[in-house]
Design brief:
- The protein is mainly alpha-helical and 688 residues long.
- It has a domain of 114 residues.
- The longest helix has 25 residues.
- Pfam families: Fungal_trans (PF04082).
- This is Xylanolytic transcriptional activator regulatory domain-containing protein.
- One of its GO terms (molecular function) is zinc ion binding.
Length: 688
């Protein structure tokens, strides 16, 4: 629209230097030029033009427009009418494994996960179709978790003031020190010296604290509490861990709502959200809900441009480094939760330009610096984080590679040499952070070697004997390295070790031990299992109070272990039965009796919270000893089992490709495992 000013002599603007009119308030008269009328277009013509464009696009995608216009039914590519269930079928859709697998893999790349894989894993854990006691253990475990995090998005106002949820000043400093000792070395998302100064200032005047700083402080409280045991919480704060966890988690949610989470572009608020999500990794929130929340963190990070490296956009070195740290933690967190929840691969499958964080200590960084600090040669405070980021980066490259297996092995050998020369050779295993870095890296490398040998990835019909042997060996290596961490003197990172149990390795060995009975590797595998059982008895029983052992996932794994032991006993009569097996037999017997009683009382569906699995959530110390979510204790070992159940990965970094599809080839298609030992080689083994 063009605007012209009236040029009448009695009206003129007060231009600079016009002394006569300086003190007058002048008006300006405007005239509007009439708009040119648009030529109207018939709605029908516009609609026809749109339809033609749509048909052109559909044709480009291979659609048969004539068949559609004639009213025929057009099958999707890769599917057939024979794979459809008949109308009115009462068959459980989740049990139609051949149908789902055929549809799933028709348009399914090896590295793309889908939610249906949940049921494949559940069928394997169930052991056989007649074991209804152990049906759908993963889903039932998830359903038993009390919180779905709905309050994060649909906030309910409360009369409780946020300032009243803060601990006293002395306890704030204790929580901050706990965070520095237990969390910060492995979750590096900010500059600790800068945040410490801000916490000191904020804690002296909590009534004047900024909204973003309040979010971050409650995030620090929540993660610090998650790293402590019940005994430590009572000794340090005089309250039970669960009471503190609920208080500070509620504080984070209230602070995020107050700060306007969904519209924020504030880095500090995003840091607080990430810390809250980290504190929820021990299954206090249903992983399916947690996956949605990590998606929010991803979207906020993308909106803030964290996915682009700041060095290419003129940002200061300090800000660039903090953005790198935060983005990579979001990437790792989202990948991990995506796999745990059964959603498959994270949405972060595109390439981003954000570089790896720098190998520098916090002491080398300060907010006003103008030149990036030189990279340190050797080990810094960032060693654990960088090893994890490096593994994530390498896996992203490996999964998109179409090279043959021997080329991938050579690339992996070169990558391992890079890690050794850059980081590991400088590590001292007597230092807790270094020991954690060494053994977790060994576990990740084993997973990297395992991934391309999965049949889906090499596009073969089945694994050959050498690959099966290597899979067994790598799984055993992962368990042995994890056991070394469990019995090591690194208790301040115990919370992290136990939420990263290499669960796929356990299941892989248990299934393989149905056929691998009398060789040296099988003996070592059972020794590793018994060592875990003894470690649990030594450390976790004395650290935690009596726990119910009714988790669905725990019962299913125990049942799977018993089936493998039965095969071993048949082949080796008179073999000594370990205490672990006696314990499992007792628990499975009790579980079946409880399930039968529940079924007789209510034939249609087992009662909730009365004798079924659904009354117990999966947040205990290990898959051998699960607890109720509402009574969650200090070191939630069981969550680590579930963190790896779908992925074969730690922190979501290196096992994405093994998703829930990883287990398809370890069991027959119909979910049955008879005692004839067809674990890996059975004729019904699914293969792509």
């Amino acid at each position: 629209m063009l605007v012209i000013m009236d040029d009448s002599p009695d009206v003129r603007p007060d231009w600079p230097g016009d002394v006569e009119k300086k003190d007058e308030v002048l008006s300006m008269n405007f005239k509007l030029l009439p708009q040119k009328k648009r030529k109207k277009r018939f709605a029908e013509a516009e609609l026809l033009a749109k339809l033609r464009r749509y048909e052109d696009h559909l044709n480009a995608y291979g659609a048969d427009i004539d068949a559609i216009n004639s009213g025929g039914i057009v099958s999707l590519p890769g599917t057939s009418n024979s794979k459809r269930t008949t109308e009115g079928s009462s068959v459980d859709q989740h049990l139609q494994l051949p149908i789902r697998r055929g549809i799933k893999h028709a348009n399914h790349t090896p590295w793309t996960g889908v939610n249906e894989e949940l049921f494949d894993t559940e069928d394997m854990l169930q052991g056989s179709s007649e074991d209804e006691t152990f049906a759908k253990p993963i889903t039932r475990t998830f359903d038993a978790i009390k919180s779905d995090a709905g309050e994060m998005l649909f906030y309910t106002p409360t009369d409780e003031r946020l300032i009243d949820l803060h601990p006293p000043m002395v306890q704030i400093f204790r929580l901050w020190q706990t965070f520095l000792d237990n969390i910060n070395p492995i979750i590096k998302i900010f500059h600790a010296p800068t945040i410490q100064a801000q916490i000191l200032e904020a804690s002296a005047a909590l009534d004047n604290i900024s909204k973003e700083m309040e979010v971050l402080m409650f995030g620090i409280y929540a993660t610090a509490i998650s790293s402590l045991t019940d005994l430590e919480c009572n000794n340090m704060f005089g309250e039970d861990k669960e009471v503190l966890r609920l208080r500070y988690s509620g504080g984070v949610r209230q602070a995020l709502h107050r700060a306007g989470l969904l519209r924020t572009s504030n880095v500090t608020i995003l840091q607080g959200l990430v810390l809250y999500l980290v504190s929820c990794l021990n299954f206090h929130i249903d992983p399916r809900s947690l996956f949605c929340l990590t998606g929010i963190a991803v979207r906020i990070g993308q909106r803030m441009g964290l996915c682009y490296d700041g060095s290419s956009h003129g940002l200061k070195p300090f800000e660039t480094e903090m953005r790198r740290r935060l983005w990579w933690q979001i990437v790792i967190l989202d990948i991990r939760v995506a796999e745990v929840s059964g959603a498959g691969c994270s949405s972060l499958t595109y390439m981003w330009t954000t570089k790896l964080p720098s190998n520098v200590n916090d002491s080398s960084l300060y907010p006003d610096m103008r030149i990036p600090p030189p990279e340190h040669k050797g080990v810094t405070e960032m060693v654990y984080v960088l090893l994890l980021c490096e593994a994530t980066s390498h896996f992203n490259k490996m999964r998109s590679s179409q090279e043959p297996l021997h080329v991938k092995d050579k690339e992996l050998d070169d990558f391992v040499a890079h890690l050794e020369n850059t980081y590991l050779q400088y590590c001292d295993a007597s230092i807790p952070l270094h020991a954690l870095s060494i053994f977790m890296t060994r576990i990740r490398i084993a997973k990297l070697r395992m991934a391309p040998r999965h049949p889906h990835l090499v596009n073969t019909k089945q694994m050959n004997a050498d690959d099966k042997d290597m899979l067994f060996s790598l799984s055993l290596d992962m368990i042995q390295n994890h056991n070394t961490l469990l019995k090591g003197n690194i208790m301040r990172f115990f919370w992290h070790i136990v939420i990263n149990v290499p669960f796929p390795a356990y299941v892989c060995l248990l299934v393989s031990l149905r056929t691998r009975i009398q060789d040296e590797m099988a003996d070592k595998a059972w020794e590793a299992f018994m060592e875990v059982f003894n470690l649990r008895a030594k450390f976790w029983d004395r650290r935690e109070e009596s726990r119910p052992k009714d988790s669905a996932i725990h019962a299913a794994v125990a049942n799977l272990a018993l089936k493998s032991w039965d095969a071993r006993e048949k082949a080796r009569p008179g073999i000594e039965v370990p205490a672990m097996i006696f314990k499992f037999k007792e628990e499975v017997r009790a579980k079946k009796a409880k399930f039968s009683k529940a079924e007789s009382a209510q034939t249609e569906t087992p009662p909730q919270n009365e004798g079924g699995f659904d009354d117990v959530a999966f947040t205990d110390s290990f898959w051998m000893d699960q607890s109720n979510d509402g009574m969650g204790q200090a070191t939630d070992l069981g969550s680590g089992l579930m963190n790896g159940i779908l992925t074969g990965q730690e922190n979501g970094s290196v096992g994405m490709g093994m998703g829930w599809d990883f287990w398809n080839d370890l069991i027959p298609m119909n979910g049955k495992q008879s005692g004839n030992g067809q674990g890996f080689n059975g004729p019904n083994m699914y293969s792509s």
